[in-house]
Amino acid sequence: MNKAILFLSIVFLNAGSLLPLAAQTTQTPQADNRQEVFLHTVESGQTAYAIATMYGVSQDELYRLNPGSREGIKAGVVLKIPQKAADNYTYHTIQAGETLYSITLKYEVQAERIIEANTGLSASTFTTGKIIRIPNARKGEVKTVVPPIPSSPVPSSPVPSSAQPATYTVQRGETVYSLSHRFNISPAELLKLNPALKKELKAGMVLKLSAGAGNAVKADVPKQPKAPVEKEVNALLTADKQIKKVEPPLKVVLLLPFSSKQTAAVSRFVEYYEGLLIAVDSMRNRGASLELSVFDTGDGTQQLEQILKDKVLLKADLIIGGVQNEQVALIAVFAQQHTIKYVIPFNSLNDDVLSNRNVYQVNTPHSYLYSKAAQGGCSLFAKDNIVIVRIQDDKEKGDFIRTFKEEMDIKHIHYKEIPFRQETFVPDVKAAFDPQKRNIVLPTSSSLDALDKIRNPLRMLTNSIGSAGYNICLFGYPDWQTYLREALDDFYAMNTYIYSNFYADNLSPAVQQFYTEYKDWYSKNLINIFPKYGILGFDTGMYFFEAMKKYGSNFENNLDKINYHSLQTDFAFKPVSNWGGFININVFIVQYRDDFTVTRNKIH
Prior knowledge:
The chain is of the alpha/beta class. 34% of the residues lie in helices and 16% in strands.
């Protein structure tokens, strides 16, 4: 395709003008079924701050109910979360045996409203321990669930109140609905008289049918089939979600601060845009129809507020961009209001993804990165001798080291820890080594200075393997990719492993092809930084363009089927909740092998 024509066909738009580009138990339920607290089971990568923000409470409130959480939280820990009295939702922790139908009866709310409030709810996410939002009654709304009377089969005639027994023993196959219909009692009243029904209904249970009921009267009642309405409600979780095809062309908007006063960052944003352009061209060569509009947001939100009023934004299918937190927040609100998919390409420290189903965060937050890296390290090194070397400087990775230690403790993996002392490092580390195992050395800092302190002595010990018998590997950080000029030979010699959420193999044919194409288009090389913004723009564009082309505007229902082979940044989006957005939790383990090859593998 003629590059000049494509380049000129995509213009920068400013605000109104066109510019060319140069605890463990809950409290007693109250009368409205709203509990004072609910339970949240911590998942890998979650932090106290993120959990508190997700539910709209302060960290102090979280710490007050869970005193031990102030020192840190671990995956699997159950936290008490206070309900917010002024919130539009009640948060409910799904209990064993509960169904969507039973929850509609408990809270007297229609199933469709629950699903509307939890757009990620499905059979796979409706599981014990998960949280769902229950919408509170709207103003003027009658808070009662009246299921439609099934046309067939018809339950037996209701029992007149004068002949109604005080109690009843449940028969196999009966439901709350069939019982309430039979005995002329509302589901809500039946649940109020029999709180145990909120957990389950099973044959043999003795139910009260009126206040002050005495001994059970086992009525000779024929078995009732399950009411179709219950099956229909529960079937909502397994219903096929039709792909919502995007009407071509796919309308994409890029919002970046090309006129930012941070001049060093501007060149990166331009390179990101240039990589995205190559993705647009690649998709067009595959037969896709795309329309890309590019806006210069500048710094802050003044220009952005005007841009968001442009009709081009209102018609967008996909928005990419926003750099500063206030920009991201403004775009996220706009995307939510207009149901537009929104991709945050750089920022990993924002709260919008926690409550906005339209948000996709590409850059993995450190808590998720460290959690996945720790899991990967434990899987790789479970049978090895792990030695942590404490080196104090301004690039210490205390959070990762703590996460890694916790993961090793959980999995009963033994490790040793020694302080770095220049004069005695060799004898100290030799004393920690096991000549019968592979020795994994992890410094607590990611700095080049810390690496320099240990790599030469360790290389010396590696070279003396014939006499000393030591098998040594380094384990380190994403930052180490920037030290290849100084340390690549040592990385190869010691079969070095690093964890990272990005890695481009410069020797792979696909990456080489991109470098060639980029230089052909722009007559320059990519900026020598990590990650490379041009490749990041290309990877991001290709992933989301392909996803929307194949699986429509609701491609989140088919995330497990999207199979894009990335050049640098891979994508494994995980929903933060049944109503929140998606975080990319992909992490690689990269190994520099002693045969001078490099491998990149996902941590599963």
